[in-house]
Every structure is written in C-alpha cells, then in structure tokens.
Write a structure and sequence with these properties.
This protein has 362 residues and is α/β, with parallel strands linked by helices. Helix content is 37%, strand content 16%. The strands form four sheets. It has a seven-stranded mixed sheet, with helices on both faces. Bound molecules: 4'-deoxy-4'-aminopyridoxal-5'-phosphate. The site of 4'-deoxy-4'-aminopyridoxal-5'-phosphate has 11 residues, from helix 3.
C-alpha cells in the first residue's frame, strides 16, 4: 500500500484517485485495441472518440454555446500570453490588462512585445491582496480586448464576479479555477487554462473562443500560432497531446459523476470554508494574505507570526503527510491549493493540524 498523503500541490496537482485507477487499468490495452491509448494514431477512430467526448463533456459541463469553439493546444497557459495578442491585437488597437498578480504581469509583458497594451487596473501597490476594481467606462469600443486572471494562484485571490466589458471581448486566464464553479461563458470572448490544476495532467491547454474572433485573425504570424489553424483542424493540425486529452476526458467524466459544476462549487466552498475558518478563528496566529472579499476558493494563502514558526509548521506538516503547503517561491508563507480533486477529508485533516499546531506553539 502506498503512503497516505494529502496533496495540496499548486499544479500539477491532485487528480481524482478513480481517474488514476482507470488510467492504470486501461494503460496497456485501451478499449480492447491491444495497445495503450498512447500508442494509438491520433487519426484513428478509437482516439477520435476520446477527443470528441472530451469536447462534448466540456461543452455540457460549462454550458458552452454553439458560437464558441474548444481548442486543445500545447505550450501551456504561458503560450497563450503571446498567442492572444498575436491573434487578436491589431495595429491601431489597444488591449487592457487588469493586474491581480504575477500571472497577469507575465501576460501583460508578452502583450507589450506584440502591440499596444496598457494597465487598466491593478492592486500591485497593496501586494495583490485583493482583486482590482475596474471602471469599464475607461475602455473604448474599438479596443481589442480586456484581459484578466480569474484566480491568482500565487496570491490566493479570485474574481467573484466578472466585469461587463460591453462589446469589447473579455479574455480570462482560468488556469487555476476553470470548472470550479458554473460560468456564464457568454461574458467572455476567450477563456484559456493549462489543464494541470482542475482538468488533468500537464500537456494540454484548453482554449474556449468565440467563433467571430477567429474570423478577424492575423495572417502574418506562424501557422501553428494561429487559432484559426487549430480551429479549422479540430485541434488535429499536428499531433495533439493524446494521453493528456484522454486524461482530461476522464477527469471530465468524473466531474459529471460528481454532479457537474454546481455540485463541484458547493464542495469547493465547503473545503475553502474549513481552512478560512481555521485562519479567522486563530486570533491572529494565522494571517490570510487575501482580503476577505477577494479570497480564492482554490488557493488558500496564509502566514504564521514569524519565519521560524512558518518553517516549523511546514516541516511538521510534511512529516504528517501534507504535501505542497509551502507558498510560491516568490512570496513565501504557506499555501494550500484545494483544486476540484482535493477531497473534503484532506481539508478537514489540514484544519485539525492547523488547530493542533497553534495550540502547541502559542
Ligand atoms: N496562469 C496561471 C493563473 C497559473 O497559475 C499558471 C501556472 N501556475 C500559469 C498561467 C502558467 O501556466 P503554464 O505553466 O501552463 O504555462
């Protein structure tokens, strides 16, 4: 039997155990093909049914309307930081970025290399403790898009509702909270997410794009970097990451079995509340990084009264099987990433540990 661990990794992160077991069972003989799904041609019927089912499940679970297309790409969310402006930011246009953390900064930096991009709102001056407020009257109808990061993996903040950008497409990096709650897709022009937090293993990036945006594309960029290329070929322009897409399909089946996005949201709220209550009831022993209104239900970030206690907390936690609780290397402190596949039981165990640690160290 393997060692009992509670996986709070920030990404790649926990996957549902049943999904891993299915993959194990099917690994060397997928659907009686006599070979692994990894060994199938990406042009075969057997693989195509996996590809199509993954798209159908995502469409159903996120209620994606017909005028949107799903793409399975490679290069992570980071490549999207460049592909978005390359494809959608034309000369004479401006793109606005809403800055809520390091990932927004990275996205903004890439856009500046490609065209005119400006910061429309930012909470950098307050260490990204909250989500910026954004006055949409500052954008012009000719703007290319407005970009935001829906969940800030490093700082532990999350947009609770999204701004109305009228006719200007809203683009969201949902890498760390896609499918954690129901979404009104029609508010967005484009959504993207690396799979390795809520959707599956690393290797595939999901892009959901409104079809009219594909039509205004830029022909001056390399073929493989055009959304249109992938849209026309149903994400089979070149060899897709077939095993990652197979795992994505299996995770989506699991989400469906859990009752879909709403049921998952309820579960996520319960998990986050367990940890935020431990912070709020600790009389200041644990301090949350995010302001209450901006708290993420995916990444709970907190510090202890001093560095020595933080180190002791992380060491003791690791001894007890809690994995991945160190904050991102750029900010330190502690972070519990509680994506969809992290069970309530793991959060209950962490809460108990936090309470016990406080009792013995204060
Ligand atoms: N955006 C966000 C919000 C993230 O959390 C991450 C990864 N942690 C990235 C982008 C970068 O993703 P990738 O490693 O897939 O390029």
């Amino acid at each position: 039997m393997s060692k009992k661990v509670y996986n709070f990794n920030a990404g790649p992160s926990a996957l549902p155990k049943s999904v891993l077991e299915t993959a194990q069972k099917e690994l060397v003989n997928f659907e009686d093909s006599g070979m692994s799904v990894m060994e199938l041609s990406h042009r075969s019927k057997t693989y195509d049914s996996v590809h199509q089912e993954a798209k159908q499940l995502l469409t159903k679970l996120l209620n994606i309307p017909d005028n949107y297309q799903i793409l399975f790409l490679q290069g992570g969310a980071s490549l999207q930081f460049s592909m978005i402006p390359m494809n959608l930011l034309k000369e004479g246009q401006k793109a606005s970025y809403l800055m809520s953390g390091s990932w927004s900064e990275k996205a903004f930096k890439e856009a500046q290399l490609i065209g005119e991009a400006s910061i429309a709102a930012s909470t950098k001056n307050e260490q990204y403790k909250s989500i910026p407020s954004f006055d949409s009257s500052t954008i012009e109808s000719t703007d290319a898009y407005v970009h935001l990061t829906s969940n800030n993996t490093i700082y532990g903040t999350q947009w609770q509702s999204f701004p109305d950008t009228k006719d200007v497409p809203l683009i969201a990096d949902m890498s760390s909270d896609i499918l954690s709650r129901p979404l009104d897709i029609e508010k967005f022009g484009l959504i993207y997410a690396g799979a390795q937090k809520n959707l599956g293993p690393s290797g595939v990036t999901v892009v959901i794009v409104r079809k009219d945006l594909l039509e205004q594309e830029n022909d001056n960029i390399p073929t493989i970097l055009r959304y249109q290329t992938h849209a026309k070929a149903d994400s089979l322009y070149h060899t897709p990451p077939t095993f990652a897409i197979y795992m994505l399909r299996n995770v989506l089946r699991w989400v469906q079995d859990q009752g879909g996005a709403l049921a998952i949201q309820e579960q996520n709220e319960k998990k986050a509340n367990l940890l935020y209550e431990a912070i709020d009831q600790s009389n200041g022993f644990y301090t949350g990084h995010a302001t209450k209104e901006s708290r993420s239900r995916m990444n709970v970030t907190f510090t202890l009264p001093n560095e020595d206690l933080t180190k002791a907390f992380l060491n003791e936690a690791a001894d007890k099987g809690f994995v991945g609780l160190g904050g991102h290397r750029s900010v330190g402190g502690c972070r519990a990433s509680i994506y969809n596949a992290v069970p309530v039981e793991a959060c209950t165990a962490l809460r108990t540990f936090m309470e016990e640690f406080q009792q013995t160290h204060s």
